[in-house]
Design goal:
21 strands
């Protein structure tokens, strides 16, 4: 099971403890084809969440990747019945083109499998570093026939070394049954020789009469500071009542290597929208996120992530811890890894208590994201 499976029940975090036991099998044949399967069972110890059971399969062969996820839920007769299914397929069409298709199915009242959404993406690499991507989302109409409900056309170019420009047009259904441009996004990323990365992303919305209105601008600057410190400053600007762009949100992040296989990440978010307060033009600290990654042994890692936020009932008070997550990854036999995620939340007295436990074993290489960059440093 993916370590992120807990998100399905996040609304019940403060009321339940979920125990998830997962078994994963990884296989690879002599041709290099790779496959793995996973199964998990989830249940609410307090009886507030209907138990579910999930199975996953992953296969790779001859440039074709297929992922399938099936979810079953406990029926009224005490037996598991199908609930939903997702199928993802990635195929390399040729040397320059890759096509991805994702289909989501639900179960009807009589248990029949029904397609509820299909997403297709085709990416083509062109000479000179240009890349074109078409993303299409379709849903069935009342007769069950697929109808396109969204299409994205993305064109990314590299006009000069270190510079990449991306133009994206989002089309949505119009009153005539066709597709009309509804959103335009322009992004420019510049990488300097000193490691600085500047990004600017502008979003415009159609007013329905052929004119475009600037909705938002996002700017970010990422720098390599002295030693092993890296910082990032992100700003969100939107038009104010006078139509002038003003900063409504700012996030300042820093990443440092503490030595002995330890890395610290901090992120402070400031906003003009403060929960519990009337909005004004002044930025105030509304959230702080801190993460400590410790490489405890070769192939093992401990990640502690803590989120502090303002209290809507007392916005003038200092930030308080709202969630703490502890992820532990340990190497296991046969190239697998054991995963444990523990989530803590404060009670009415502000004391942290375990509210969620997610344990499992995986052989999925993508799920084993152990950072070993500092593991070789002397302790």
């Amino acid at each position: 099971m993916s370590i992120h499976r807990w998100l399905k029940f996040s609304t019940l975090i403060s009321a339940a403890v979920i125990l998830c036991l997962t078994q994963v099998c990884l296989a690879q044949d002599s041709s290099g084809s790779q496959s793995w399967t996973a199964s998990s069972q989830q249940g609410d110890m307090g009886g507030r969440v209907n138990p579910t059971r999930t199975s996953e399969t992953h296969t790779e062969s001859n440039g074709r990747i297929v992922d399938k996820t099936s979810v079953e839920t406990l029926g009224p007769d005490g037996r598991y019945v199908p609930y939903s299914e997702t199928e993802k397929e990635s195929v390399r069409v040729n040397d320059t083109t890759v096509r991805n298709i994702q289909r989501t199915f639900a179960r009807g009242p009589n248990g029949e499998r029904t397609l509820i959404q299909e997403r297709q993406e085709e990416s083509r690499s062109l000479p000179g570093g240009e890349q074109k991507v078409v993303r299409t989302t379709s849903s069935p109409d009342v007769n069950g026939a697929l109808q396109v409900v969204r299409r994205e056309l993305e064109d990314s170019k590299q006009p000069s070394p270190g510079v990449r420009e991306t133009h994206t047009t989002v089309l949505a259904p119009d009153i005539n049954g066709g597709l009309t441009p509804a959103v335009q996004i322009e992004q420019r990323e510049t990488k300097s020789s000193d490691g600085t990365i500047e990004t600017k992303k502008s979003t415009q919305l159609s007013d329905g009469s052929g004119r475009w209105q600037l909705s938002e601008v996002r700017e970010s600057t990422s720098k390599q500071e002295s030693g092993q410190l890296r910082s990032k400053d992100e700003r969100v600007l939107r038009p104010n009542a006078n139509g002038t762009l003003a900063v409504v949100e700012r996030t300042v992040s820093k990443q440092t290597e503490a030595g002995s296989g330890e890395r610290h990440d901090t992120s402070d978010t400031y906003s003009t929208n403060v929960p519990g307060q009337a909005g004004d033009d002044h930025l105030q600290l509304v959230q702080r996120e801190s993460t400590v990654r410790r490489t405890t042994a070769p192939g093992a890692q401990n990640i502690t992530r803590q989120i502090q936020q303002t209290n809507p009932g007392n916005p003038s008070a200092s930030l308080g811890v709202t969630t703490e997550t502890i992820d532990i990854v340990r190497p296991a036999s046969s190239g697998n890894a054991e995963q444990t995620r523990t989530i803590l939340a404060p009670d009415s007295e502000g004391q942290l208590h375990e509210v969620w436990v997610d344990t499992g074993k995986t052989g999925n290489p993508a799920a084993i994201q152990v950072d070993t960059r500092t593991s070789a440093k002397p302790k």
